[in-house]
Write a structure and sequence with these properties.
Blueprint: H1 4-7, E1 11-15, H2 19-30, E2 35-39, H3 42-52, E3 56-60, H4 68-77, E4 86-90, H5 95-103, E5 108-111, H6 116-133, H7 148-164, H8 172-177, H9 183-194, H10 198-216, H11 221-227, H12 233-244, H13 248-259
Parallel strand pairs: 1-2, 1-3, 3-4, 4-5
Helix pairs in contact: 3-4, 4-7, 7-9, 10-13, 11-12
């Protein structure tokens, strides 16, 4: 259990839509000298994290308005909040849920119902690890336009989502929901920030990953096609040739000849 000196000056943000869970957590941390604030959904929690810069965030997964995964993606895409450790608290115990939470940037994933002493110990450990790692670099000042920064964070989160899931990308509506927005708004933000559509970015990302795999690995062309989201090698070869002027095999041979 943390000591008073260990916990002094640390603040914790609880993001959970359940009043019962909020009370349970606040009662737990009221016995310790942590400063606690609460939010009822991911959108509100993200805004509170920006304003308050907590030392650690306890984040539920299933919430209205914006779920925990979407909130975490935005937190990790924003330079102002990306270094704040996030611990997921969720009743979802499936392995894929835990892997998802950790893969998008959480430092831990605790399943409800949890043992209060264990959760307190995990919070203490991650606060201690963050302190040992040193204070984060002061964030850069926000850009002059107050509207540009939030859009840039959404677009950055979407880019990361796309690059991490090229093989199994959902549709545009689901991509938008994954960062807490909707299809039409995401399309406008993405084009304004990048000058391209989401689909154009996906196409270029797949080609870039395909080129990298052809140059640096011996993976079969058919397997590369599946890894970057094509249904078969023929579709990949057609798109690749339209983009580069060469078949995947010819591109690989030329890249190897250039290195030798």
């Amino acid at each position: 259990m943390p000591t008073i000196s260990d916990a002094t000056e640390h603040s914790i943000l609880i993001i959970d839509d359940s009043p019962f869970e909020q009370r349970l957590l606040m009662e737990l941390f009221s016995e310790l000298p942590y400063r606690v604030s609460v939010a009822f959904n991911g959108s509100q929690g993200y805004q509170l994290a920006l304003a308050g810069q907590p030392d650690l965030i306890l984040l539920d997964v299933r919430m209205p308005v914006m779920d925990g995964y979407a909130a975490c993606r935005l937190l990790k895409a924003n330079p102002l909040t990306r270094d704040i450790p996030v611990i997921f608290l969720s009743g979802a115990d499936a392995a894929e849920e835990r892997v998802m939470g950790l893969s998008i940037g959480a430092v831990d994933y605790v399943v409800k119902p949890f043992a209060p002493a264990e959760l307190a110990a995990r919070v203490h450990i991650h606060l201690h690890l963050t302190r040992r790692a040193g204070a984060p670099t002061p964030p850069a000042p926000p850009p002059p336009s107050g509207e540009a920064q939030p859009d840039a964070v959404f677009v950055s989160a979407v880019k990361r989502l796309i690059l991490d899931n090229l093989a199994t990308l959902p549709g545009l509506s689901e991509i938008a929901r994954s960062v807490g927005t909707y299809r039409e708004k995401l399309s406008l933000m993405f084009r304004a920030q990048t000058g391209a559509t989401v689909f154009a970015f996906i196409r270029e990302a797949r080609m870039a990953r395909g080129m990298e795999l052809l140059e640096r690995t011996d993976i079969e062309v058919q397997d590369i096609a599946l890894l970057i989201g094509f249904n078969n090698a023929g579709n990949f070869a057609t798109a690749f040739r339209a983009r580069t002027g060469a078949t995947p095999g010819a591109y690989r041979r030329a890249a190897r000849a250039h290195r030798s």
